[in-house]
Structures are given as C-alpha cells and as structure tokens.
Amino acid sequence: MHEMSLVESIMDAILEMKEQNEWVRIRKIVLRIGDMRQVIPEIMVFAFRTASVSTPLEGAELVVKAVKLHFKCNDCQKEWGEENMAFLCPFCGSFEVKLIHGMELEIESLEVDDTNG
Amino acid sequence: MAKTVEIKKSVMAADEKIAEKIRSVSREKGILIINLIGSPGAGKTSVLEATYKAADFRFAVIEGDIATTRDAERIALLGVPAVQINTHGGCHLEANLVESAFNELDLDSLDVIFIENVGNLVCPVEFDLGEDYKVAVNSIPEGSDKPLKYPHLFHKAGAVLLTKLDLLPYISFDKELFESDVFKLNPRVSLIEMVPVQGKGIEEWVRLVKGWLEEKRR
C-alpha cells in the first residue's frame, strides 16, 4: 500500500517538528498532494489512523487536499488540465511542456497546541 | 493554545537529504547510478545478467527485495559485486538503505551502480535514491496499458525497457498504443525493445548507459 509508505514518512517528519518546536499536541495535519502521486485521500486517512495508534499523533485529524494536473507549454505559454494528460502541447505540438501542478507532496500546515497554552 | 502553523515542506525532506548525500558521493567518484523499476517478473534481474555479458564498464548491483537473497545470488554468480537489501515487507527502497549498501561496495573500482528496486510500479517512484536516472522495465505479458495506469514512473524514466518481446506473437499487446502512451508522458525517453535472455536490445542499452556515464564524467 503506497499510502502507508507516505504516511510513515509524514509521521516521521511531523514527529521531528513536534520535538524541535516543543509542541504539546498536533490537532490537525493538512497535506497537499498532486494527482500524479497516485494517492487516494480516503486510503491515506485510513493509513494514518492505523499507523498513528499509540503514537503522539493519535487522534490528529488528517486532511488531504488533492491538486489536479495542470500543464504549461514553455513555447506557446498556453495551459491545460488533466483532460489531456500528455507532455506534448495540444496547441502548438511542442515537447517543451512542464507539469506546473500535480507533483505536490507537501505538508501544508499543522494545527498544534504549543507550550505557551 | 491551538494555533495553525504554515509548514510548506516536502513530505520527503528527510529522504531527499540522504539522496543528495548519495548524489554528491557519486559525483565525486564519477559513478553513474541507475534505479531500475518494474513489476515483479518484468525481467529486471535478467536485464542485469544480460548487461554483464555486453558491458565494458565496471558495475555493481544493489538488490532490493522484500525477502530472500535470490537476486543477489544470481548477480554474484557472474562475479559482479552485489549487495542485497531486504525490506522485510517494505514495498520500495529508501535512500537510507541504499546509503548503507554503498558502504559495502568498493566505490573506487566502479563505473556504474544499478539499483534493482522492489518489484512494484508505484511506491519506488516516489522515493529518491540519489540516482541519476530511473529506468522503467515493462514486459510484454504485463499488457500495453501500463504507461497511462502508472504515469508517474513513465514520466520520470530516463529510459523504458520493453522486455520479453519474443512473447509478442502469443499475447495481445498493442505495441503502437504502448509506444504512443510512453511518448505522450515522456517525449524524449529512450525506448528499447529487448529479449534479455537472448541478448536482443542489450547492446543498445549498454550504449545508452555508456553515454550517460560519459555525460556525467564530462
């Protein structure tokens, strides 16, 4: 299960941040994940619930924001979405195509209880 | 008190750091690293065995498997240095595992390191191992629909090896569709048709690897 591997990396990263910043509790984790990463949000949430049991992250809410594929041609500057999944510009035929959205795999924000509470 | 903290940090930051370390060692030593990714049974180990017969560069293999040392044994039989990593259930290799395998190799006597990832078309693509190129290995029996089903791998690959081509007469595989989907995802990729056990396509593959090696050392 692909999502479980990612959840493990996410948990490691957040636990490290928690320790460094001396946060008491993590309430909510917001992720941004591009569609090219082939992550199913429901499975990700399930994997997190399972993996976080008996860890300091147990009970935190996980929110996965999916980011749709979006392409841009470096030659004609036109943009298009996932309806045409190709690294070949549908407007001018150029190969100079960049995926500007869809590869995201980031922890966007955390809702935490800090020590000053 | 509850507060929201902006993080905007890659999930993979920790892995990427180790991958960068591997990359800097390989740059310094002038070693090309190739990460072979494909389904179980696609022919990854067979490609490496055939590579040995045709290659005039020195290489080692890091074998990633969930269990057993069978692949490393196959490679070691040829006299090629092989390090086995067992992931014990893990579906992919991670940079820290590769880094420790590095310590078991005599880097000064190598030109190329092939990492044979755990057989899987999804997870291995996500984890940067510090390689110069990912290479997708896809066999005819897997069907021609794999590129669009697993676009991340085919988009990221420096080369696609289409293996077991000798089975084409017996299996319904739309080669034109496969090729056009691969080039849609990755217009500049090298697509090599192969029958590793017969040596077909291996010379072209070895030439490609040598080209990459020369480019890296330039």
Q: How would you describe this protein?
A:
- The complex is a heterodimer of chains A (117) and B (218).
- Chain A is of the alpha+beta class.
- Chain A has a domain at 2-68 and 102-112: 2-Layer Sandwich (hypothetical protein PF0899 fold).
- Chain A is 26% helix and 32% strand.
- Chain A has two helices and six strands; from the N terminus they run H-E-H-E-E-E-E-E.
- In chain A, the strands form two sheets. A three-stranded mixed beta sheet of chain A has the order 2-1-6, covered by helices on one side.
- In chain A, helix 1 packs across helix 2.
- Chain A is elongated and about 55 Å long.
- The model of chain A has no long low-confidence stretch (mean pLDDT 92).
- Chain B has 218 residues and is α/β, with parallel strands linked by helices.
- Chain B has one domain: 3-Layer(aba) Sandwich (Rossmann fold), CATH 3.40.50.300.
- Chain B is built from nine helices and eight strands.
- Chain B has a seven-stranded parallel beta sheet, with helices on both faces.
- Chain B starts with a strand and ends with a helix.
- The chains are: A alpha+beta (117), B alpha/beta (218).
- At the A-B interface, helix 1, strand 1 and strand 6 of A face strand 1, helix 1, helix 7 and helix 8 of B.
Chain-wise SSE layout:
The complex is a heterodimer of chains A (117) and B (218).
Chain A: H1 2-21, E1 25-34, H2 41-51, E2 61-67, E3 70-73, E4 79-81, E5 97-101, E6 105-113
Parallel strand pairs in A: 1-2
Antiparallel strand pairs in A: 1-6, 3-4, 3-5
Helix pairs in contact in A: 1-2
Chain B: E1 2-10, H1 13-29, E2 32-38, H2 44-54, E3 59-65, H3 70-77, E4 82-86, H4 95-102, E5 112-116, H5 123-126, E6 133-139, H6 146-149, H7 151-156, E7 159-163, H8 175-185, E8 190-193, H9 202-217
Parallel strand pairs in B: 2-5, 2-6, 3-4, 3-5, 6-7, 7-8
